[in-house]
Amino acid sequence: MYKHFIKPLLFTKNPESAHYFTFSWIKKLFNLPILRSVIKSAFAFEHKDLEREVFGLTFKNPIGLAAGFDKDAKLIDEMSMLGFGFIEIGTLTPKPQEGNPKPRLFRLPKDQALINRMGFNNEGVLAAVERLKKRKSGVLVGGNIGKNKTTPNELALDDYLYSLHALHPHVDYFVINVSSPNTPNLRALQEKEPLKQLLQAVKSATDHYPQKRPVLLKIAPDLTNTQLDDIIAIVRETNIDGVIATNTTVVRDGLKTSSNLVQEIGAGGLSGRVLKDRSTEVIRYLTSQSGNAFPVIGVGGIFSVEDVQEKLAAGASLVQIYTGMIYEGPAMVKRLKMGMVGWSDKS
Predict the structure, then answer these.
(1) Which of 163, 179, 180, 317 is catalytic?
(2) CATH number, span 2-346
(3) What family, per the record (predicted)?
């Protein structure tokens, strides 16, 4: 139904309008008593073979919703009904910010891809906290945090620590986002010394809480092998709990969409099928070069159960989806899980 009716309707709207239109209808329909049980039943599928123990947390299945879809923690209960094993909110910043000027989200249908330059648009971490206090589902939630656009890099740590302390009682793990291409100078924080200092301070802050929260680092797919070697060294030195590989890319190679249209769209992070191979390469490099020293969550270009298995075979412990769901629809989550059990049975 999604591909034949809902997707064509949504694709008549500009991508950001379609996103908020979808949000409003999910909020309405998923909370109607008459539909709630129907929706839960339609998307329900769990199996003991899907359970994972990763960085001290028990995931009922390895399929997560990547950050960016529910930035402000508005739909955790509703999205959990689709069967996700975990949901990542954010990227959240200490202060609310509007993000970059519109238009800032673009579809590339020929490539089943998106380009975004949203710029950490969000209502601020404290607004998200108030919603998290009211959530009813038990799905695991990750808090993806970043710095405000107006915060200079030398003061970035203050922003990360502010959000960490605000979110700590309400999320299950943290993601330090220094890899978005849409906040000026943010990726400079991926350089070895600034990143090491940032992660050491964040890890130290979490260690002061009785209830520990895993700390993960989200990295760009555009890092060189030398930079990935630095990431491995930093993870070991700072003793953080894992890596998310990868964020969106600024590279435009291999696209079917005309170069003129791509140039017209301009700057932004590219996600979708075109990112699949590179994200898998990064996962494989991190796990092989580190000797599987830390867990990796694989994200980028996942559309099928074969894509999931590719990420897991490369060394990922869990995976996340976003762009694939925009093109394939919410039933994708159940399809991936059912396919993984079938694949496991055949292997």
Answers:
(1) 180
(2) 3.20.20.70
(3) Belongs to the dihydroorotate dehydrogenase family. Type 2 subfamily.
